[in-house]
Amino acid sequence: MYAQMIKTARSGVKNREEMSDQEREFQDRIDRDEKIEPKDWMPDDYRATLIRQMGQHAHSEVVGQLPEGNWITRAPTLERKAILLAKVQDEAGHGLYLYSAAETLGESRDELVRLLHEGRMKYSSIFNYPTLNWADIGAVGWLVDGAAIVNQVALQRTSYGPYSRAMIRICKEESFHARQGYHAIMQMAFGTPAQKAMAQDAVNRLWFPAIMMFGPNDSESTHSEQSMAWKIKVKSNDELRQQFVDQTVPQIEYLGLDLPDPGIKWNEERGHYDFSDPDWNEFFDVIKGNGPCNVDRLKDRVDAWEDGAWVRDGLLAHARKKSARTAAE
Amino acid sequence: MSNEWPLWEIFIRGQHGMSHRHVGSLHAPDAEMAIKNARDVYTRRNEGVSIWAVEAVHIAASSPEEKGPLYEPSNSKVYRHPTFFDIPDEVGSM
Ligand SMILES: [Fe+2]
Ligand SMILES: [Fe+2]
């Protein structure tokens, strides 16, 4: 998802006999659905896994601004431009909520940003795909934010208090994102044949990258067991992916577009849509850094950070001077 | 000296005559910018009519380990709750 393939700091789940008294008490609190708060005792691995997950989630919000920011100046109308600007601004806020949540565990935002810039932390694979035209912007809001919502709604119940509260806040803002995207695509799908063809092309290209967002199949994601036991993760990758497919297929049909995967078929027995696996080799390749935009995305982030340094330093110097002057008076 | 802007905790009063509530935190070089940033981050949808910003280092917090002794004095005083007293129905609501 926005946090894909988070390695839990330990492999396998500790059973109750292996736990210390403190660990057992901690697990009991989680099982009772109590929220864990920053100053509470927690196992080191819980803390480390959370920092990794919230950090990756935060990075995804921030890097996720790039593919959309690309189209702000080229939006087809002033209204669409204002809407997209507001949407992208929300994403900056989401990044901030999540960095703040990670900071409650004693990890500074600058440190997380440094790890991202050094390539030692990741962001969601989806943002390594390009946005080639305006239809892509509609499809991103609808499909990418749509997938994010499925994940984030589940995470509202995550065990770490600050993370859960950030998710609740984010979810309140997300439905605007998905709806403005669907609305933009609707106008194209119901527009001229050329516009409809653009909408179809965007859905075709973004479908598989969107369903990859949930991460590898459950059988492949060996690290999630402990995260599930700790309720850092609340639903499995495959569960979330199925939920997304089930809610999205009727939305594609409403637009009168062709389904982007011939394998999509209603399965009466399961009560769910069947669908094809994405190309997992492509997924792992993108994660490794070989997607179409990995290099550009990271470069844009690093440039923004470095180009902004004089502003950050200047404001801080000014604030220090001012407070020194007040102290002297 | 670290060049990271200090952390501020943000409290916002909603529209309805409520008290200020903690909504989250942010980084800012000084109080003035903290309030401007809080406006951008935490009131984009009319969530508030008043903002407080407090530098996080100035907040003192109780520690969870002391939960027992800290709250004990109130636990043992059940008579502080109105339901402790049985008042006959005939008396009416009280
Ligand atoms: Fe977001
Ligand atoms: Fe979003």
Automatic annotation (TrEMBL), chain A:
GO terms for molecular function: phenylacetyl-CoA 1,2-epoxidase activity. It is an enzyme of class 1 (oxidoreductase). It holds the Pfam family PaaA_PaaC. Residues 14-29 have a biased composition (Basic and acidic residues). Residues 1-29 are annotated as: Disordered. Its EC number is 1.14.13.149. Keywords: Oxidoreductase. It comes from the Bacteria. PANTHER family: 1,2-PHENYLACETYL-COA EPOXIDASE, SUBUNIT A, PHENYLACETIC ACID DEGRADATION PROTEIN PAA. This is 1,2-phenylacetyl-CoA epoxidase subunit A. It comes from Aliiroseovarius salicola.
UniProtKB/TrEMBL annotation, chain B:
Pfam families: PaaB (PF06243). InterPro entries: PaaB, PaaB_sf. It comes from the Bacteria. This is 1,2-phenylacetyl-CoA epoxidase subunit B.
